[in-house]
Amino acid sequence: MSALETVKRLTERMTGWGRPESRRFAALVRQRKPHPFFFEDDGIIPNHPRWPLIMYRGALRFPDDLDPAAVLEDLFERHG
Predict the structure, then answer these.
(1) Ranges of H-type helices in the chain
(2) What is the pTM of this model?
(3) Which of 18, 30, 48, 64 has the fewest CB atoms within 10 Å, measured from its CB?
(4) pLDDT at residue number 1
């Protein structure tokens, strides 16, 4: 086991937070409407004129017994 995984497991034991189980994971993801945001180029941060920032408000639930970081890690891992 890598040092990172060891730290994750110790943190889960210390905080009481856990990782989502596969059968429970589907209930954490909710279908939401995309909200596009277009920004003008301010010369500091490049913005593409046709590609917006897309935000999905409330797309994930974070129950108190789960580690929010673990939920996001598992989500990204499932979707490559």
Answers:
(1) 3-15, 22-28, 68-78
(2) 0.59
(3) 64
(4) 65
